[in-house]
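Incident log, support desk, overnight shift.

02:14 A customer reports that sequence design results differ from what the structure should imply. Their input is reproduced verbatim below. On-call engineer (initials T.W.) acknowledged and began investigating.
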């Protein structure tokens, strides 16, 4: 059914057709395995460093879902998230990522390493009635200050039902959470809606960062930074893959940087070693790629 729906309305697909196609077979397999994977705790939280654009010191991380499957290895959320949405499992995955994320944050704080954490939030999670209260309770239990958590909402989720979303985001910012608009500029941005949105940060999408060295691309990023500053929002650039791009973005006034140049998403253990190295080193510009993840 999902495969038929993906091709548009008034269509149909035969199961045998799907079962014979490698891509489709993988999708089918993943859908069937996902529910079990969640129950068996095969969903893991990985962490990618976020650095201050000026000091180049690590100031935070983004928690990213990873699924290790015995047949396909590490599966990216780009593959399994849409399927999780279909099956109503996205909320459970989000919950799993959150619990592991704050567990690690607590551990690092006990080790004297206080950093911020960004967590991606799906539409379903955001509109769970007890969402804010549940998060606050979890943080309280571990004595983690609310202000170190940024909730990332994609632009398309933020703008789709703006009135409803604005209310929920106002509740979250009032409670002290940071709100980052993820994949900014790739959805249906509406500046008037952005103006009313209780957000604290904009994440500049990788598609803009990739064009930072072309004249028009550079103008676009500078325009986004200006919009952000007019709305008193901070900027975080995603997908920074080399030193030159990092320098360019810093010159444009981007506040924080994230990307393979500073570190790929890594396991909790890997990120802990990264943190220790980065925070104790006197040369924060010496980066290491510490992960085997290439997706
Ligand atoms: P996102 O939130 O925009 O995350 C950034 C994505 O860019 C991540 O992909 C990250 O691995 C990738 N990335 C970071 N730096 C670079 C770089 O320098 N070059 C390139 N080419 N890519 C880079 P990932 O982990 O595959 O996640 C994809 C998307 O899945 C995320 O996009 C997010 O929207 C979603 N996602 C991930 N984890 C969760 C989760 O726990 N809950 C929800 N609701 N969504 C999640
Ligand atoms: Mg994100
Ligand atoms: Mg993004």
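02:41 Re-run completed on a clean worker. Output:
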């Amino acid at each position: 059914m999902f495969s038929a729906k993906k091709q548009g309305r008034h269509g149909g697909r035969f199961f045998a057709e799907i079962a014979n196609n490698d891509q489709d077979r993988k999708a089918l397999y993943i859908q069937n395995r996902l529910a079990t994977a969640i129950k068996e705790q095969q969903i893991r939280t990985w962490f990618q460093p976020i650095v201050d654009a000026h000091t180049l010191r690590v100031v935070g991380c983004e928690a990213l879902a990873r699924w290790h499957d015995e047949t396909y290895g590490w599966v990216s959320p780009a593959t399994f998230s849409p399927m999780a949405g279909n099956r109503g499992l996205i909320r459970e995955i989000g919950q799993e990522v959150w619990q592991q994320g704050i567990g690690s944050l607590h551990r690092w704080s006990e080790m004297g390493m206080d950093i911020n954490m960004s967590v991606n939030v799906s539409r379903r999670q955001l509109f769970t009635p007890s969402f804010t209260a549940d998060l606050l309770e979890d943080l309280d239990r571990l004595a983690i200050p609310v202000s170190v958590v940024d909730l990332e909402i994609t632009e398309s989720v933020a703008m789709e039902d703006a009135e409803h979303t604005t209310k929920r985001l106002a509740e979250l910012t009032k409670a002290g959470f940071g709100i980052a608009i993820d994949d900014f500029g790739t959805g249906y941005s509406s500046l008037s809606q952005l103006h009313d949105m209780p957000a604290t940060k904009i994440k500049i999408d990788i598609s803009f960062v990739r064009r930072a060295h072309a004249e028009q691309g550079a103008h676009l990023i500078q325009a986004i930074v200006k919009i952000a500053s007019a709305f008193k929002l901070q900027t975080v650039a995603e997908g920074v893959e080399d030193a030159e791009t990092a320098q360019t973005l810093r010159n444009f006034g981007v506040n924080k940087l994230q990307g393979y140049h500073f570190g790929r998403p890594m396991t909790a253990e890997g990120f802990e070693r990264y943190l220790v190295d980065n925070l104790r080193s006197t040369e924060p510009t010496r980066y290491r790629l510490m992960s085997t993840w290439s997706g």
